[in-house]
Amino acid sequence: MPDTPRRPEGTQDFIPEAIPAWRKLERVVGEVFERYGYLEVRPPLFENTSLFHKSTGETTDIVEKQMFTVPSRAEGGESVTFRPEFTPGVIRLILENQLLKQKPCVKLWYSGPVFRYERPQKGRYRQFHQFGVEAVGSNDPLLDAETIAAFDQILRRVGVTDHAVRINSMGCGECHGVYREALKAFIAPNLASYCENCRRRFDRNVFRVLDCKVPADKERNEKAPPAVDSLCAACRTHFESVQRGLGAAGVAFAVDKRIVRGLDYYTRTVYEFSSTRLGAQDALGGGGRYDGLVGQMGGPEAGAVGFSAGSERVLIAMAQEAEAARKLDFYAVAADDESRVDAFRAAQALRGADLAGDLDFEARSMKAQMRSANRAGAKFAVIVGSEERAQGRVRVKPMEGGEERLVTLDEAIRLLKGEAR
Ligand code: AMP
To answer: Could you give the C-alpha distances from 268 to 13, 180, 234, 261, 316, in angstroms and in order?
Structure first.
């Protein structure tokens, strides 16, 4: 029997049952971006290879090792590369179609496949999908905040609510000069112990050393001075204004001095969205400002900010949160027959507070009720017996282990909602 064909490593098939979740994500992405005033663009899947060398950056992982490049069939012709990211193609599209002549600030969104030659694992593929925005033509820090707020809203609308938003500032060209020296001074004494890649990057682009995934280098880099400590006054003000904007938009965030984005073009604001539901590959997406890129690509000097999100990662987080939401918050358990109506009363009070729960209707033993609680995937058992009844309380027992608590119903509601510990 000949082997049946298999898909190439790092690619995925989306069979019919996977499609509804994709459609939901794509619908929400389009709706939210349009509501924020972004218009859709569809650049080609491949671009001239030189575009990525000039924008993504010669010393980045993407350009050094991850591009799917097809040589030209014409003698001396230029090779093309399947896009490893959207930003360079979208900026090229803006310049080539002279979109900045029509409007001072152009706000665009995109969604589609991208290609990187990576070592595949869960959440990391060679063909994957991104959606995102590029807003070009403004230096306003509120625009940085707006892109973050749009991403946050998309996640919430598809049911991803427990993600973290971390922001940082890498500063402008002026700050980079100061920071480059600070970083070199930190690395130089130990340069010989760094990996070969880092030693090469030290001279060519010392910032890239901070992206190194080699564990020993990563550990050393923990102690490196952060870019945000080298900010000039204007960049500091910008960063503070981004934070005020996020406050006004109601987006919860944390400042994380360790964020450095792995692409060359970032200036000032950088940010990352992550989810603990994703395991090792925990980044949902990221972005930031890239004020120098448009000018560097031959366009006008224009401030710009954008982000890219990984669709597969968002879909994994969606599926995991949906599964967690299917779990019951509680199972009400009567310790004895006389307490069944009290267990029912407690269940009704909790349901009235928007908690999901069930109870036994067969007057079974407490042990059997606890088994049902387990089978139903309840997060807590809420137990009532004569002792609890006498005190006007219930016993709250976390099903996955942890301390049992004797509390009033109001306290139980707060405990179950995670508002009290
Ligand atoms: P980047 O353009 O590297 O900042 O990536 C943006 C987002 O795309 C990341 O935060 C991930 O969610 C996603 N992503 C990056 N690389 C991969 C990959 N190889 N497979 C799946 N998703 C990816």
So the answer is: 38, 15, 10, 11, 30
Q: Which residue has the tokens 């619908």?
A: 27
Full-model pTM:
0.82
On whether both 75 and 101 belong to a single domain, the answer is yes
Domain that holds residue 334: 330-416
In a domain, 268, yes or no: no
Q: In what order do the strands lie in the sheet with 405-407?
A: 357-359, 330-334, 380-384, 394-398, 405-407
Alpha-carbon distance of 343 to 128, in angstroms, equals 49
Which helix (H) or strand (E) is 112 found in, with range? strand 106-115
Residues 191/196/202/206 CA torsion (nearest 10 deg): -110
- The answer on 53 and 127 residing in a single domain is yes
CA of 311 to the centre of ligand 1 (A): 9
- Domain membership of residue 399 (yes or no) is yes
CA of 278 from ligand 1 middle (Å) equals 12
What confidence tens digit (pLDDT) does each residue in 354-413 have? 999 999 999 999 999 999 999 888 999 999 999 999 999 999 999 988 889 999 999 999
Q: Which residue has the CA at smallest separation from atom 8 of ligand 1?
A: 310
pLDDT in tens, 74-120: 988 999 999 999 999 999 999 999 999 989 999 999 999 999 999 99
